[in-house]
Amino acid sequence: MSNAIADVALDVLFREARSYRAWLAEPVSDEILREVYNLMRWAPTSANGNPARILFLRTKEAKERLLPALAPGNVDKTMSAPVTAIIAHDLKFYEKLPQLLPHDPGMRDLFANAPELVDATAKRNSSLQGAYMILAARALGLDCGPMSGFDNAKVDEEFFGAGKSEPNSTQEFFPEGHIKSNFLCNLGYGDKSKLFARSPRLEFDQACTLL
């Protein structure tokens, strides 16, 4: 236990951390978003595949492109957040395996010839990377509001070119429509005065078994 982090850090990351719906009018710099990524990128992923791709929406214009895909209950919290991250996954993540897993050159072909494995691996591991993003953001002083409640197909079409014949403004970075959205996460400095009372969680004996 000598490497255990301080109790106050556990409070920041877990016990006192909340999912925010309302935000203070304080900007989030590009520099801190880069810091968030540079921490979250150390998340473990299958075959070191790193399938997550993140689009940080920072401007009013970018948020308005997202607006038609949002469930009504997620509109205000998203439009008022300083940043909304689209956590997505690349279904051709295996093309980067020669860079990321140079000691095992056969892994690229293993995934390239197994589309069902690619789909499951990309979804699972981008979710894991997204969870690390939340922890990284909290560790750097940001608050988070992760959410579902949006139309994935609309997001994929608008931002990642899925089904579009004309290129869009993000296709240079996310080409060919093989990026698929997973979940959204608002980032900023949360308004604590708008928090609800914290909901309970399951106890150990309700959720876990020791064998």
Give a structural overview.
Keywords: Flavoprotein, FMN, NAD, NADP, Oxidoreductase. This is Putative NADH dehydrogenase/NAD(P)H nitroreductase LMG24238_03254. It is an enzyme of class 1 (oxidoreductase). By secondary structure, the protein is of the alpha+beta class. It has one domain: 3-Layer(aba) Sandwich (NADH Oxidase), CATH 3.40.109. It is 38% helix and 14% strand. It has helices spanning 7-15, 30-40, 60-66, 75-79, 97-100, 106-112, 115-139, 152-160, 204-207, and strands at residues 52-57, 83-90, 143-147, 179-188. Helix 2 (30-40) packs across helix 7 (115-139).
What is the element layout, followed by pairings?
Blueprint: H1 7-15, H2 30-40, E1 52-57, H3 60-66, H4 75-79, E2 83-90, H5 97-100, H6 106-112, H7 115-139, E3 143-147, H8 152-160, E4 179-188, H9 204-207
Sequence stretches where pLDDT stays below 50 over 5 or more residues:
none
Number of strands: 4
The largest sheet is: 4 strands, antiparallel
CATH-defined superfamily: NADH Oxidase
Q: In terms of structural class, how would the helical and strand content be classed?
A: alpha+beta
| CATH architectural designation | 3-Layer(aba) Sandwich
Major sheet strand order: 1-2-4-3
GO molecular function: oxidoreductase activity
Domain Nitroreductase: 16-159
Organism: Paraburkholderia sediminicola
Cofactor: FMN
